[in-house]
Amino acid sequence: LENKHMALAYVIYHNRTWLALVFGNYELATELGEKGQNILDKGCSPTFSVCCHAFVYGLASFVLARKTGQAKWKTTAYECTKKMENWTQNAPSNCLHKLLLLQAESAILLGENKLASTKFDDSVKVAGDSGFVQELALVHERAAMFYLEQGDITKASHHYG
Predict the structure, then answer these.
(1) Neighbours of 154 (CB within 10 A)
(2) Long-range pairs for 17-20: beta carbons < 8 A, 24 or more residues apart
(3) Element (H or E) spanning 107, and its range?
(4) Could you give the CA distance from residue 112 to residue 126 in angstroms, rounded to a whole number?
(5) Contact predicate 53/60, CB 8 Å
(6) How many CB atoms lie within 10 A of CB 132?
(7) CB neighbours of 157 closer than 8 A, spacing ≥ 6?
């Protein structure tokens, strides 16, 4: 499938990556994300989903970087963040909330919890203002998980609704 129908294979990997992320299977999300990235690296034509791929793959990579401590996932996460920074310059209404969430996850990885909190808040506002409700829900979920890890039930409850 990958050799004959690269675009279709990419779309399948991208959507499966999203599902794995949503259901908390970060290992599978990064495995599928890596396969999708390999297709993109072969020259699959760019679409808006390429930006979404970097977002989801980067997010799952940040989670695995914290979980495993492996440099591979840190590198992947930061590469995805760098791509998002570039795209945000040209399309902030589509990308800024994604970048802010990746930056929040980066701050967590670096132990900068106050910065992470600020980035989560900013991402919530921008995602809501831009109308990305599915990604707004994801930002709220990631923020709630962060606050639960910090032992802050009040803030976690705010994000879980």
Answers:
(1) 7
(2) 17/53, 17/56, 17/57, 17/60, 18/52, 18/56, 20/60
(3) helix 92-109
(4) 21
(5) no
(6) 17
(7) 144
How far apart are the C-alpha atoms of 35 and 39, rounded to whole Å?
A: 7
Spans of all domains in the chain: 1-73, 91-161
**Of 89, 103, 92, which Cα lies nearest the Cα of 132?**
92
**Per-residue model confidence as pLDDT tens digits over 106-160:** 999 999 999 999 999 999 999 999 999 999 999 999 999 999 999 999 999 999 8
Q: 111 vs 11, 12, 104, 106, 117, CA distance in Å? A: 34, 35, 11, 9, 11
Q: How far apart are CA 28 and CA 61, in angstroms?
A: 11
Answer whether 100's CB lies under 8 Å from 122's CB: yes
Calculate the CA 71 to chain-centre distance: 17
Tokens of 122: 């900013």
Q: Which amino acid is at 37?
A: Q
Closest residue by Cα to residue 52 from 28, 23, 19, 75: 19
**Are 156 and 148 spatial neighbours (Cβ–Cβ below 8 Å)?**
yes
**pLDDT tens per residue, range 29-40:** 999 999 999 998
